[in-house]
Amino acid sequence: MPSPLPDLSAPDWTLSLVSALEQAALAISRLDTRISATSADAAWRLRACWSGYAAALRAQGVEIDEIDIFSREYDLPLPGRRPIATLYNELSGLESWRDELRQARRQHWRELIPLSLDLPGDWSDRPLLLRALELGARYARAERSSGPWLAFPALLGALGVTRNVLPCLVPADKAWRLAPRDRAAIVPRYLKSLTRLAEDALEQLSAIEASRQAAARAIAAERRPGALGTLLARLMIAPLTTPREVARTLDLTLSGAGKLLARAAALDLVVEVSARQSWRVYLARDLATRYGFVAARRGRPPAPAASTPPIDDALARFDAEMAALDAQLARLGVTAPAD
Question: What would the pLDDT profile of 236-284 be if each residue is shown by its tens digit?
């Protein structure tokens, strides 16, 4: 009779494992807090879905990267990327997965794991991240599709690890299915993977916010920005575009759309990645840096704009000036008319 598989939520604790658990929890909490406060939430989630979905496909044996998911979603080939010959329809479930993540906040974790589970008595005392690992591993052994990997972000939210559902947190690992007895290797690798994914997502969020700040500074410095602001706002949710697409969505002529994109490129807000005169393709600056089309900016970032003084201080100065004027008029014998 085969021996039962070890429970991954109850590992043999060591100092390094405790440290890895702490680092993973801190990285996830930092990302979760930033997502709760940022105004770039929609743009970040779009990019996070590409990375999470690509990780799930790789765990299924599909040789694909995040940039391939991104390019195929917009149906625009990128230079330097060879077409991937595969029988797998890479984007067949991407949109439905996004819809599931939007609804995941209202679900209990048992709804995400369609299994009959016999949980140990001290289950509620075990770390949440390790409970998520054990549930994910059981689901992965029972279901051979990409479903267990794609359910992991929602599972973390349902367990209370995160307040927001974070699509980038897909630590897909074939060992959950193939070698579940190797607990001493699986648990640390899982925690390090979560830490790496959370830190990478936080860097991506910072890059998006930096791009928005750069766009705001560029628009404020332009004497006649025209449709530049609308274009840059659209690039947050459609970061790969062409003059034809801009002309259609912004109701411009094809020539006007090309000039508008060239103007944005001159301001270093978008990057032309097509390298040809016709059928030009432009990519948002943060993704062009992430995918290696341009080098990352060096040096210190520009200082933020000076904040506007509080309105109370301005009103207090106004009241003081009016009181001084009333006193001067009183010395000259000029009195205010009665109400």
Answer: 888 999 999 999 999 999 999 999 999 999 998 999 987 665 578 899 9
Instruction: Find the angle CA(256)-CA(262)-CA(268) to the nearest 5 degrees.
Output: 145
pLDDT band at 1 (very low <50, low <70, confident <90, very high): very low
Task: Return all residues near 218 (Cβ < 8 A) that are at least 6 apart.
Answer: 228, 267, 269
The DSSP line for 253-282 is -HHHHHHHHHHHHHTTSEEE-S-SSSS--E
Residue 339 is predicted with a pLDDT of: 42
CA–CA–CA angle 178, 183, 185 (5° rounding): 90
State residue 270 phi and psi, 5-degree precision.
Answer: -135, 165
The answer to whether the beta carbons of residues 195 and 203 sit under 8 Å apart is no
CA distance 114 to 100: 15
Mean pLDDT in residue range 31-35: 96
Q: Pick the closest to residue 236 from 213, 217, 255 (CA basis).
A: 213
pLDDT at residue 327, rounded to an integer: 85
Contact predicate 47/38, CB 8 Å? no
Q: Residue ranges of the alpha helices (H) in 114-182?
A: 128-142, 147-150, 152-159, 175-178
The whole-angstrom separation of Cα 147 and Cα 223 is 51
Quick one: which of 234, 238, 205 has its CA closest to 75? 238
β-strands 270-272, 240-241 pairing: unpaired
Q: Would you say 166 and 36 are in contact if contact means Cβ atoms under 8 Å apart? A: no
Tokens of 335: 């009195």
154 touches 104 (CB < 8 A): yes
Residue 54 DSSP SS3: helix
Cβ-contact 169, 194 below 8 angstroms: yes
- Cα separation, 29 vs 169, in Å, equals 12
Residue type at 91 in one-letter notation: L
Cα separation of 264 and 246, whole Å? 12
Structure tokens at 152: 């992991």
Inter-helix orientation angle 152-159/94-103, to 10°: 0
